[in-house]
Amino acid sequence: MRPPGVIRYFATVGFIYNYPCPLKCNFCCHTKENVGEGRLHPGNVVPLILDFARYENVRRFAFTGGDPFVYIREILEIMRAARAAGVAQPFHMVTSGYWAKTDAKTQALLCELAEVGMDLLYVSYDHEHVRWVSKEQVHRIARCCQVAGVRMHVYGVFWNPDERVEDLLPDLDGVPKTSEFVTPIGAARPLFNGRTRCKDVPDANKSSCGKCSDYDITIYPNGDTFPCCSGGFNKEAKLHCGNAFRDSAADIKFGQRHARLAKSIGFLRLHELVAANDLDVLERLPRFADVDSVCEMCRDLHKDDALQAALAPYYETLEIEFALAKADAEWDLLGLEEKAKDLQLA
Questions:
Q1: Which of 141, 197, 207, 279 is the most exposed place for a label (fewest CB within 10 A)?
Q2: How many domains does the chain have?
Q3: Is 36 inside a domain boundary?
Q4: Residue 326: which residues within 8 A CB-CB, separation 6 or more?
Q5: What is the residue-wise DSSP string for 196-249?
């Protein structure tokens, strides 16, 4: 008899600390309107970290904004308190790097952050960020991260999908780089007007956000909590899964079924299943050709309560398929582990 499949979920708990940022990028998704009211600070963040850190499926913490380096002394205070209380998970931050003015100060700050457990730094760099942050600042951060033992990843967002981070930083070797294109949310929405829609993006790229069973729990300044990090889209999709100020970590339901569909199954499979069973419901589904990203598809599917009611039986079928596939994969993995043990004993 096969053992039952155990579907486990892992999470990064991220804090949108506040909306202030020295830069004014025209595509920013974390505008004041999107981030909303409230303010995170050591007094309300430390208890949340202590609560979430008790669960082994919480793998790390994260700070974004705005630019969280605006509040860097508070974040250092938070993580020192967390370490003193026994929290072991590492954390990462997202920044423009505006603060990297000199080698000495940059090195000192990154070493200070590494001492309290920061192991990864995401630096945003594209044609908007270059208006305020120089290439030398990015190179300085890279050098200092290497000394501090902190991994660095450069992430750029472009209006032209043919442009890449590598074009702006051709000499930055050994640092991972990711390039995405602007989506109509936040500051970009009034500038979008459909003019940059990428019709040639494959449907498969709009089907799933990947990282199967690995979630980014996002906590806004008012405590509202969502099972993904997509600024603004998560709110418009009505993916609210609790309020961290009112609900315990155990009560934050980040593994909700729509999030599982986006993470682990994909919206293409949903469309296929509906197409095979109900053409009327199929006509109500958002079309892949009308969106540029999985975030938009996720929002358009979930914001309509009536559509969600019509899709309920399909979600149930997809969850059963996923559970069976996961059980098969775990059974196969168990078999491989047993074979490996036999070979070691032989």
A1: 279
A2: 1
A3: yes
A4: 5, 7
A5: T--TTS-GGGGT----TTEEEEEE-TTSBEESS--TTHHHHTT----BTTTS-G
